[in-house]
Amino acid sequence: MEENKDVTIYDLANKLKLATSTISRALKDHPTISTKTIKKVKKMAEEMGYVPNTLAAGLRGNKTNTIGVLIPTVTQPFLSSLISGIEITARKSGYNVIIMQSHDSYEEEVSMAKSLYSSRVSGIICSIGMKTVDTSHFQQFVNNNIPLVFVDRVPKDFNTFRVIIDNYAAGYKAT
């Protein structure tokens, strides 16, 4: 019995007797491809069940359109609200989100940061764990021009973007 296999642009090209570059451009509505060819390619793609491989496309273009979120835990109300906002905004902008929890473990945080880096995320949003003293595991993002934003708990000695809530000032303004 034949196993189910993802349909690729090569399969579409073979079926339509077109170059893979033509298929790729047609799927992206490239202006150099005729409207007739675009319609034909998209119709065949739908019939064959073609789904673009965003990971492969991202790696070819050196951009995965994935944002990594590394937080201590999703159970904190502030952080769960933050994740919700990040996910909604990212999706509207064509990004996916990977959420990882360190559970306030320095070792887990280091491991998760390495995992996000090896996943070639397009950027990372991080709230460091309570036990984090050394933040050198984030330096690889900065060294490779991968946007890094610290929120809530931020390292004092790391020169990058940060978002901090001043609870004292907020409480003062509220009274």
From TrEMBL:
PROSITE patterns: HTH_LACI_2. Residues 7-61 form the HTH lacI-type domain. Keywords: DNA-binding, Transcription, Transcription regulation. Gene3D superfamilies: 3.40.50.2300, lambda repressor-like DNA-binding domains (1.10.260.40). GO terms for molecular function: DNA-binding transcription factor activity; transcription cis-regulatory region binding. Pfam families: LacI, Peripla_BP_4. The keyword Cell division does not apply. The keyword tRNA processing does not apply. This is LacI family transcriptional regulator. It comes from Flavobacterium bomense. The lineage of its organism: Bacteria, Pseudomonadati, Bacteroidota, Flavobacteriia, Flavobacteriales.
